[in-house]
Structure formats: structure tokens, C-alpha cells
Write a structure and sequence with these properties.
alpha+beta; 2 domains; six-stranded mixed barrel; 48% helix
Length: 395
């Protein structure tokens, strides 16, 4: 291993390719399911969200809270505006959301992010909640997405020029960052998210009334059919009160928003990882066969001195296993970098990547399986060589 460094490097890299490809995808999937789904559930996502054509007020929300099957109901107003960080930058879309009460929130709970920012230095905290008047709190993924005009350009206390659909422009101060795990990441919709108070919404020249209603059912929150029935009942009550319903969204219980996109991506990456794994195995088989072809005479000498076939196999298979362990030292750190990048840039949140016992076992098992699968048959063939065949071997 030490004297033939070129061959050692080739074998280690051959194993590392397959281990990295499959191991990274498998571990990233585990992190998505445990980390992001856990954060999503902790935020208490709405069982259903009803979007209306006509505005409504808090009195109607109080009526909805008394409907059988409704455990909680909260209204809010969302408006699409546009913003720019300075005169040289272009305009970017921004969805601002106003909630009447940020302190007593039971649905779609926001998490302040005092130590999260677009560069290694965290934003100073604490985050002001509720949002101060004439100030804006940004959703954290918005400052990570480069094409939204915020990444590495804004900090706490900076001013954004906001223009409403009516053409009115106001300068709004950035008051901090929050995490909204119940929202589809800004990466997918290509728009930033921000939260303001109702007073700030009025200061921007927009109504104080509400146009969205989020409900939490009191029964089985995993039963999509039951949730739909309760949501339809609430929608009918809004219609009877003169509020036209544009649409009702019922997310799949127990799954992330746009989970089918994440599942499709993981499936595609898994398929590519398996192909990389197979390529790694075949490349390793060729390397092992070349190694054994160079050492036919040494194998014959050992057998002439009384070596058993299982000893020959054990020697070469264990050597390849050591190569596999060296490959893990390359694949694991590289997998960490890729998993972190995928979490923060694509999935919309940084994954809390840790070298857990289960994760380390995945990497080690993959490396050992690749090593054994690639070296077993060549080593077995070498172990069957007789001394007579070695004496007749012409290279």
C-alpha cells in the first residue's frame, strides 16, 4: 500500500466514488426526514388555509373558532410587493404578511433567528417580535437565495425601498430574521418573504383587513379527509357571511411543503448514486485483477509453502477493506459539504449535519460492501491457482 502509492490512490478513489454517491444521498434523505420534518411539525403547520376574494376582520375569525372541529383559527393579510436595496439594483418580488397578533400564535409559529445570516458572521440579535412599526422581518431563506437581491447585500438595520401594487413607495427598516418552516422555501417560488405588523401594512397604504384564514382542526390531524371536511365547512360559513373563497389549500399531513419535489430529487440522486456505485465496483474489480495478475508467482510461492486458499483470499480481501476504510476518510467530509450545501441552498434550511453513530455505520458498511464485492471473485480465483499452474505461468 505504501510503496505503490499510485495504485493505492486509484483503489481508494474508486471506492470513494461509490461510497460518496450513495452514502451522501442516503444520509441527506435521513437528515431531511428527521431534521426538517421535525422543525416543520414543531412549527404547528395549519391543517388548511383558506384564501378569500373579499377582506374580512377579526370578528369573523372569532366566529370560525366556534365552529365544531376547529381547534384554532388565525387570520392574516398577504400582499405581493416589490423592493430594491439601492438605486443601482433592480426590483425583486417580496410577499409581505401581516398578522394581528404575533405574541399569541398557535398556528404557523415563527422562530426568531438571531444567529443566522448570509455570511459567516451572524446577524446580531435578539430579533424584535412582534415586528416594530415601519419595520420588516425577513424570512431567513430569502437572504440565502442569490437571485432575490438580498444575499450578502443587506444586514440588520438596512433600509429596503418597497413599492406596493398602488405604486406607493416607502423605506422599510430590516428588523431581523425569522424561520418559517411551514412556508414553501423562497428558492422554489423565487420571491422573498417578510413579516410586518398591521400598523405597518396600513402605513404602506394597504388595508388592515385580512385575506387569509389558517385553521387547525381539533380531531385527527393526520386524516386528510377529515381536514378537508372541516375546511369545507369553514369555507361555507365564510361564503354565507358574504366572503367569497378563492381557494382552499390542505397540505398533506406529515409531509413537507412540496415534498414531492424533494422526493423526486432524492430518487433521481439515488439512481445516479447507484450507477456511480456500480461503476466504482467494476473499476475496482479491474484494479484488483491487475494487482493479482502481477502477484501470481508470489501466490504460488505461498501455496508451495502450505498456504490455504482461504488464507490467500483473506489476505487480499482484508487489504481491499483497508482501502475502503481510507476511502471513507475522503467520502465522509465531502458528503458533509454537499449535504450542507443542499440543505441551505435548495431545501431552504441548513441541515444539522452531525457524524452520528448511525451515519458513520452507513458509510463504513458501504465501503466494506464495495470492497468485498469487488475483491471476492478475483481473490477466489487467485486462491484456486495451483503450484503447477504457477510454474507454467508465462506472465
Amino acid at each position: 500500500m505504501w510503496h505503490n502509492k499510485r495504485r493505492t490512490s486509484l483503489v481508494v478513489l474508486s471506492i470513494a466514488v461509490g461510497v460518496f454517491a450513495v452514502g451522501t444521498v442516503a444520509h441527506m434523505r435521513t437528515l431531511v426526514q428527521s431534521d426538517m420534518l421535525g422543525s416543520y411539525e414543531d412549527a404547528v403547520p395549519a391543517s388548511a388555509t383558506i384564501y378569500t376574494e373579499q377582506p374580512f376582520d377579526e370578528d369573523l375569525v372569532e366566529i370560525v373558532r366556534d365552529i365544531p372541529g376547529v381547534a384554532a383559527a388565525e387570520g392574516r393579510r398577504s400582499v405581493m410587493v416589490r423592493f430594491q436595496t439601492d438605486e443601482q439594483s433592480g426590483w425583486y418580488p417580496l410577499l409581505i404578511v401581516a398578522r394581528p397578533d404575533y405574541e399569541d400564535t398557535r398556528i404557523n409559529i415563527l422562530q426568531p433567528e438571531p444567529e443566522f445570516g448570509p455570511d459567516p458572521e451572524p446577524w446580531p440579535g435578539p430579533v424584535a417580535m412582534p415586528p416594530p412599526e415601519r419595520e420588516l422581518i425577513l424570512e431567513r431563506v430569502s437572504v440565502l437565495t442569490p437571485n432575490l437581491g438580498l444575499a450578502s447585500k443587506v444586514r440588520l438595520g438596512d433600509m429596503l425601498l418597497v413599492e406596493t401594487p398602488t405604486g406607493k413607495q416607502r423605506e422599510v427598516r430590516i428588523a431581523g430574521l425569522v424561520a418559517d418552516f411551514t412556508q414553501v422555501p423562497a428558492t422554489f417560488y423565487n420571491r422573498a418573504y417578510g413579516f410586518v405588523s398591521v400598523d405597518t401594512m396600513e402605513w404602506l397604504g394597504l388595508p388592515r383587513t385580512l385575506n387569509e384564514l389558517a385553521i387547525l382542526v381539533s380531531g385527527d390531524r393526520r386524516d386528510e379527509t377529515y381536514i378537508t371536511q372541516v375546511a369545507d365547512t369553514v369555507a361555507d360559513r365564510l361564503e354565507r357571511g358574504g366572503v367569497s373563497v378563492l381557494r382552499t389549500d390542505v397540505p398533506t399531513p406529515g409531509k413537507l411543503p412540496l415534498s414531492y419535489v424533494v422526493d423526486g430529487l432524492v430518487f433521481l440522486l439515488s439512481a445516479m448514486g447507484i450507477l456511480s456505485l456500480l461503476s466504482s465496483v467494476f473499476l475496482l474489480i479491474n484494479t484488483v485483477q491487475a494487482l493479482l495478475a502481477q502477484q501470481v508467482q508470489q501466490i504460488g510461492m505461498m501455496k508451495a509453502l502450505g498456504a490455504h486458499g482461504r488464507q490467500i483470499m483473506g489476505m487480499y480481501v482484508s487489504t481491499i477493506v483497508i482501502y475502503g476504510l481510507l476511502a471513507v476518510a475522503i467520502a465522509m467530509p465531502l458528503g458533509k459539504v454537499i449535504s450542507d450545501a443542499a440543505g441551505s441552498q435548495f431545501l431552504g434550511a441548513p441541515l444539522s449535519y452531525t457524524y452520528s453513530a448511525g451515519g458513520v455505520v452507513i458509510w463504513l458498511v458501504l465501503a466494506i460492501l464495495i470492497a468485498v464485492a469487488a475483491s471476492y471473485l478475483p481473490a477466489q480465483n487467485a486462491a484456486r491457482i495451483t503450484v503447477r499452474e504457477v510454474l507454467a505461468y508465462d506472465g
